[in-house]
Design brief:
3 domains; globular; 5-stranded parallel beta sheet
Length: 436
């Protein structure tokens, strides 16, 4: 019996918005983040809205059933399913495993009345080949691991609202038995174990979580990075030791400014590459190629700096954030500390989920953690653990106070203190922010 699918409404709404348009829906994201389930949810939506089963073609190219398939085989297979006079709905999961798949997908678009959905676990899916064939004819749906709100839903918790004694509306979280839960305890579980959807089936016991995350790590590193074929203009990634050390370094330095040169120097100076006979510093372009591979497989995301006064992006050091804090803890070991950077990491991806483009802000010599921009909306956001100490309050507020425009300015923190607003700057509890 097939288990019921948990809703990913944030992404399903995006797919529905482009249903029955010429645009090919390209669903991207790290392996096991829920892309296949999202496609199944979309297929379920179609069936519930009256689309016949025979009009829906679903193919997962990780199945042995399609292991030897070529692009021409794919074209023939789909041609045999097409019902004359009917619109077809084509779902291709991990389609990049088929050589020349772009030709087939483009032919379906040209030859048939069809609505096409594809997934891929590597950003190479959206590189030159697809762009050449489908320029302007696809929309990317970027899927991330579960948000905190989704994490609660997947693990059987319910979020409701109640009126506090002050008259404010407060969030209340209950478990399956109706017992009220401590939001901070649940946030700490989310920060420790992360938001990979499969953990809802595995449970949140450390050994089982570690085994599940080991599987994700292996799938991403082996299938998407070490086994990737040589591509035009790209280096093949062959050194699994260097790759793992680099991942550990970036995971340990989320939210810190780094460069390929500084990474190479640190790996050697801290003795991180002194295994076997390996003592030589890797070349900067090698480090950069490995970082690009990690970004392509959606493990790490790079964030650029933006000069708020000069209104331009800067070429100086960027920062990296890891797509899932559970994977970070798997790589580094489950340890205390660094909760400030973990919170910053979580808020960054929450902003991406909400559709914002995110940059680091520079104002004079001060830094604003995030400038979040979309369409007609912009927010300046600082992230810190607590706002109680006067020196912390001054440090976090000063960059925001210097920004000359009137867009919303927010400090997100675990402990807000008593003051909820200062100089027009909102001071918001992080858990409330994540539950919005």
């Amino acid at each position: 019996m097939q288990k019921s699918l948990k809703n990913r409404d944030i992404y399903l709404r995006q797919l529905k918005a482009f249903q029955d348009t010429e645009m090919i829906k390209v669903i991207t994201g790290i392996r096991r983040c829920g892309k296949s389930c999202l496609m199944k949810l979309m297929a379920e939506h179609l069936r519930s809205s009256g689309i016949a089963d025979k009009q829906i073609v679903e193919m997962n190219f990780e199945s042995m059933r399609f292991a030897e398939m070529t692009a021409k085989d794919l074209y023939r297979f789909v041609c045999e399913q097409v019902i004359p006079g009917k619109r077809m709905y084509l779902f291709f999961d991990e389609v990049q495993r088929i050589d020349g798949w772009e030709n087939a997908v483009n032919s379906f678009r040209v030859d048939f009345d069809c609505d096409i959905y594809i997934t891929g676990s590597n950003a190479h899916l959206l590189s030159s080949e697809l762009s050449t064939y489908l320029a302007g004819r696809y929309v990317e749906i970027k899927v991330l691991p579960l948000s905190f709100r989704e994490f609660l839903d997947f693990h059987g918790y319910t979020v409701s609202e109640r009126k506090a004694i002050t008259g404010q509306m407060k969030k209340r979280i209950t478990d399956a038995d109706g017992e009220v839960c401590d939001p901070k305890e649940l946030y700490e579980a989310y920060a420790q174990f992360g938001g990979m959807p499969m953990l809802a089936d595995v449970g949140l016991e450390l050994d089982r979580v570690s085994a599940a995350l080991e599987g994700i790590y292996s799938a991403v590193v082996v299938r998407d990075i070490l086994e990737r074929e040589k591509r035009k203009g790209q280096r093949t990634i062959t050194d699994s030791l260097l790759l793992r050390k680099l991942m550990m370094f970036l995971a340990d330095n989320i939210g810190n400014s780094v460069s390929a040169t500084s990474i190479g120097n640190t790996l050697v100076s801290e003795g991180l590459l002194e295994e076997g006979n390996r003592k030589a510093k890797p070349a900067t372009h090698t480090i950069q190629a490995y970082i690009e591979a990690l970004k392509e497989s959606y493990i790490f995301y790079e964030i650029k700096r933006f000069d708020i006064k000069g209104k331009e992006y800067l070429k100086t050091l960027g920062k990296y954030y890891i797509v899932d804090t559970g994977l970070r803890n798997y790589l580094l070991g489950y340890r205390e500390g660094d909760t400030g950077h973990i919170l910053e990491n979580i808020i960054y991806f929450e902003l991406l989920r909400r559709g914002y483009d995110v940059a680091i802000g520079k104002i004079d010599k001060k830094e604003v953690d995030f400038i979040a921009t979309k369409a007609d909306d912009k927010k300046y956001i600082q992230v810190t653990e607590a706002m109680n100490a006067p020196e912390t309050r001054e440090r976090e507020l000063l960059p925001l106070q210097r920004i000359p425009d009137n867009y919303e300015k927010i400090v997100v923190c675990m402990d807000t203190g008593l003051q909820q607003e200062q100089d027009g700057i909102l001071i918001v509890n992080a858990i409330d922010f994540l539950l919005e």
